[in-house]
Design brief:
The complex is a heterodimer of chains A (about 450) and B (about 425).
Chain A lengths: L2 E6 L18 E9 L8 H20 L3 E10 L3 H12 L6 E5 L3 H6 L3 E2 L17 H6 L1 E2 L2 E2 L1 E5 L5 E4 H6 L4 H13 L4 H13 L9 E2 L7 H8 L12 E3 L1 H16 L12 H9 L5 E3 L4 H8 L5 H4 E4 L12 E2 L3 E6 L4 H14 L2 H11 L6 H4 L2 H4 L2 H10 L3 E2 L7 H16 L5 H16 L3 E3 L1
Parallel strand pairs in A: 2-3, 2-4, 10-12, 11-17, 14-16
Antiparallel strand pairs in A: 1-3, 4-15, 5-15, 6-7, 8-15, 9-12, 9-13
Chain B lengths: L1 H34 L18 H9 L4 H8 L2 E3 L2 H9 L4 H11 L3 E2 L2 H9 L8 H8 L3 E2 L9 H11 L5 H10 L10 H8 L1 H34 L2 H16 L2 H12 L4 H9 L11 H30 L2 H9 L4 H12 L1 H16 L3 H5 L12 H10 L8 H25 L2 H4 L8
Antiparallel strand pairs in B: 1-2, 1-3
Helix pairs in contact in B: 1-21, 2-3, 4-5, 8-9, 11-12, 11-15, 11-18, 12-15, 15-18, 20-21
The chains are: A alpha/beta (about 450), B mainly alpha (about 425).
């Protein structure tokens, strides 16, 4: 994993006071910002904090105070290393002031005392935080406390190669009608397997390239659980849910796809490079990925005409129990327990300023994310970006989020491990689901409802 | 005099002893301690505090705690009374602001922080910084929800203040449940490992990995040592150095080179494509090739270790024995079978036992190459322990469970060491020579 280390020094000496004002004492702060899952196109995740520091210093100068903020930023391209670094740094008392991570970390990190509740430091009734969609704050809350400020959001659609669909006899009209059929449940994941098989049989794509799912663990796999009617949280009790039927159907779907030869049994653990290479160059039939990958295909993998080359839709339903859906996995700004209360107050002000729609628009457009507020959607840079607009208006309304529950991590890890085991054929689907049930009930007890 | 010399001796070994204590004994002791706890990201390592949250109250309600107590504990309100005003003055809230609160809001109750804050925001002398405003609300708050208390006594006092009628037993139960840190769970981790169906698969993977890599190490090491022994000295030296490369190359670089070698469009891939053989990512594309890769990756590192030891031992064999055998007309194979191998018995046993133990605990090369995949088909015990305790996608680091797995590895290593010592009679190896030189 690459670690980009950018140390931005923001030194200011703006003392521009009139003779009558008292020279205020200079305040110096060093604020550290760590961001996870942050690749080349996501630099505004931390650069927005750097710009916010500049604005905060200018605001202070106008009030006649001298405020010097040094922002030190560090970004990890992956998640494993990043979460390990944050957790262990926090144990050693060296956590960064601002953490940019997935919202699902709020559960365990708030329990361990790693976080300060952001609601104690910011004003939700003031601009720009009052502009952010209220349902995003539901995602950044846990146990009745708002712990984080949404930094970005996305959705994770299903993609289709137009050329390869045409090669098996689809017309342009068929392809245009596809997203609608997916949304209504008419076109399912099993129809997709059939069509992927047709592409392979016709020699349009190589064997094993008909359907290219995400090669590694990710929130994406919960989408397929929902496609088969699964629920992650029980609405009534707020407890986690393992729907055995949905989980079995979902595991079975990937086994069926492997048996049909449209995806290798050993697909998980293959490389992202191979994934991008295949999907960006019409070597695959069907795949799914986050909205932001489009900008990655354009900048790194030679995709020129996204709308001409690919079609997109929600993740299709798997059977009559489930529905077409997508998951949004917002990243959040979190305040750590590091430093003094004043450090945290300054960090919170930086986060608030960085949530300015114009700043968020820079990040969203550069990295292919959705808008967090109507104001952001109306910023010309954002409004003129067709894909960002579609992701916000067409896909986001159907999005669900994974829960912030403390126990969701163990459940997730066990789900993926057993999905992998059945997909590779090491164990049967039935055994994998039973193993998952045994594992989560022994680890979580009555904190999970098994149906 | 005698005591003084022994004290001096102790003085000399004390740096070594303290290093031994810090870097060997302490980790083992800590691993043992961790193994019997449920320590994880959520509980932290250094200990927790006591918090009552909405979810906890819900769970306590389900567990049969009296509903009145639950309701009382869940209450939250902000009230402006002479008492709370005095508390605010003590907390250092600015007097003019406080005066305005008293004048305009005296006697009022607010159900949540937001409505109280917006009332405060309407006052002329309110602080400009939002954090200061929030701090000013705290003395007016009557709630223990989501407040972290450092000790259990503080928590119990807080519960009593909110629910004065609650029986002592209930208070104690709630305080106990409100602890956020780790707890002792006796053998819970070991029981979970026993219950997990995948445990047996990881054990089998580990046995296969250690056995196959060990066999490769010993046989290839032996083969190299013997063949270079028969080569002319200059050529032999060159080959020996060549075989040392895997060991002296930094492990990350070595793993990257293997990726180039076995990856999509890598060296092997291109050759296989030219020859019309199946070309795919050999490292991750199929179970047999993934196993072959990690056995070779580790095998080449270990083979050089065997080669060095065996070469040294070969040079210790009196050359006259080989000359004599040639006079008697022995073939190369007979020389190896009858003269060399019997005299290499100890080095072979040493390499076998040493490598078993180091392979059991090795995971770096696997982590950097197949990472236990495809699926979890090449996951070995040490890698699983590492991933469980320190490195996984969801960031849910289970220190307790990982330590339990590591402890099992330590125990297996100890048992194997004793077995090897017994079986191969190491004591004879290190005996005083029977002939005095």
């Amino acid at each position: 994993m690459t670690i980009l280390k950018t140390t931005k020094l923001l030194a200011t000496t703006a003392m521009l006071l009139s003779g009558t004002m008292l020279a205020a004492q200079a305040e110096d702060y060093t604020i550290t910002v760590w961001a996870g899952g942050t690749g080349d196109t996501s630099n505004y995740r931390y650069d927005n904090i750097v710009m916010a520091a500049d604005i905060l210093e200018r605001e202070a100068a106008i009030r006649g105070e001298e405020l010097n903020i040094t922002v030190e930023t560090q970004a990890w391209s992956g998640w494993d290393d990043f979460k390990q670094a944050v957790t262990l740094a926090a144990e050693a008392g060296n956590a960064p002031n601002i953490i940019i991570s997935g919202h699902e970390d709020i559960g365990p990190w708030s329990q361990s005392g790693l976080l300060r509740p952001v609601e104690d430091y910011v004003d939700f009734d003031a601009w720009p935080l009052n502009a952010i969609y209220p349902n995003l704050y539901d995602i950044t809350s846990y146990d009745g406390v708002v712990w984080g400020i949404p930094q970005d959001a996305e959705s994770r659609p299903f993609f289709y190669s137009r050329a390869n669909l045409k090669a098996i006899g689809w017309t342009d009209a068929d392809i245009e009608a596809l997203p609608g059929k997916v949304a209504s449940g008419e076109y399912t994941l099993y129809n997709m397997i059939d069509d992927a098989k047709k592409m392979q049989d016709a020699g349009v794509v190589e064997a094993g390239k008909g359907f290219v799912p995400r090669p590694s663990n990710g929130p994406d796999y919960w989408q397929f659980y929902i496609s088969f009617g699964g629920e992650m949280v029980d609405a009534e009790t707020g407890k986690l849910v393992l729907d055995k039927q949905a989980m079995t159907d979902m595991f079975q779907f990937f086994v069926d796809a492997a048996d049909a030869g449209v995806v290798p049994a050993t697909h998980l653990g293959s490389t992202w490079d191979a994934f991008h290479e295949a999907v960006a160059n019409d070597q695959a039939g069907f795949w799914h990925a986050g909205t932001w990958t489009v900008s990655e295909w354009q900048t790194k993998w030679g995709l020129e005409d996204f709308f001409g080359q690919m079609q997109y839709s929600l993740i299709p339903a798997g059977n009559e129990n489930g529905k077409a859906n997508t998951i949004s996995h917002p990243l959040v700004y979190l305040l750590s327990n590091a430093g003094t209360d004043d450090d945290a107050a300054i960090s919170a002000e930086l986060i608030s300023i960085a949530s300015e729609p114009r700043f968020n628009a820079l990040h969203a457009v550069k990295s292919g994310k959705v808008a967090l507020s109507d104001a952001q959607a109306s910023i010309p840079l954002f409004a003129n970006d067709r894909w960002a607009g579609i992701a916000t208006t067409e896909l986001l309304p159907h999005a669900t989020a994974i829960p912030n529950d403390v126990e969701f991590g163990p459940y997730w890890t066990a789900m993926f491990k057993n999905l992998e085991a059945s997909w590779t054929g090491t164990v049967s689907v039935e055994d994998a689901v039973n193993a998952l049930e045994a594992e989560v009930t022994s680890a979580l007890g009555d904190k999970i409802i098994v149906r | 005099m005698r005591t003084r010399t022994s004290l001096l001796g102790l003085g000399f070994v004390s740096p070594a002893l303290s290093l031994l204590f810090a870097f060997f004994l302490m980790p083992v002791v800590l691993t043992t301690v961790f193994a019997f706890t449920n320590m994880s990201t959520a509980t932290g390592i250094t200990g927790g505090s006591h918090v009552i949250t909405g979810n906890l109250l819900r769970d306590l309600g389900n567990a049969g705690i009296d509903n009145d107590v639950i309701t009382a504990l869940g209450e939250a309100s902000f009230s402006v009374t002479s008492e709370t005003l005095a508390a605010a003055a003590d907390a250092g809230v600015e007097p003019r602001f406080l005066g305005e609160i008293e004048a305009r809001l005296m006697g009022q109750n607010f159900e949540d922080a937001r409505s109280f804050e917006s009332a405060l925001k309407s006052l002329p002398s309110r602080p400009t910084r939002i954090r200061e405003l929030k701090l000013a609300t705290e003395p007016f708050e009557r709630s223990i929800l989501n407040t972290r208390y450092a000790s259990r006594a503080d928590m119990e006092a807080a519960i009593t203040s909110m629910a004065p009628d609650a029986p002592a037993e209930t208070i104690s139960t709630i305080a106990e449940a409100s602890y956020t840190g780790w707890r002792w769970i006796d053998g819970g981790n070991f029981q979970t490992l026993l219950d997990r169906p995948e445990t047996i698969r990881i054990v089998l993977n580990t046995v296969f990995y250690v056995a196959a890599t060990l066999a490769f190490n010993v046989f290839v090491g032996l083969f190299l040592a013997i063949t270079t022994f028969y080569l002319p000295k200059t050529g032999a030296g060159f080959f020996s150095v060549l075989w040392l490369l895997p060991r002296i190359t930094p492990v990350v670089l070595y793993a990257v080179m293997w990726k180039w070698f076995t990856w999509d469009n890598g060296f092997l891939y291109v050759i296989a494509e030219q020859l019309g053989l199946p070309a795919f990512n050999y490292m991750k594309g199929s179970v047999p090739t993934a196993w072959a890769t990690i056995i070779l990756v580790n095998g080449f590192v270990g083979a050089s270790f065997g080669m060095i030891l065996f070469s040294g031992a070969l040079r210790a064999i009196p050359i006259q024995q080989l000359w004599a055998s040639e006079v008697d007309g022995a073939s190369r194979w007979q020389q190896i079978r009858r003269i060399i191998l019997p005299q290499l018995r100890w080095p072979i046993l040493f390499v076998t036992s040493y490598q078993t133990l180091s392979l059991l605990s090795s995971y770096e090369q696997i982590w950097l190459t197949t990472n236990g995949g495809p699926g979890s088909t090449t996951t070995v015990w040490a890698l699983e322990a590492f991933n469980t305790a320190l490195n996984n996608y969801t960031g849910n680091l289970e220190y307790g469970m990982g330590a339990a797995m590591a402890l099992i590895l330590v125990a297996v290593g100890l048992v194997l060491s004793i077995l090897y010592l017994r079986m191969f009679r190491f004591d004879e190896l290190v005996n005083k020579p029977r002939i005095e030189f």
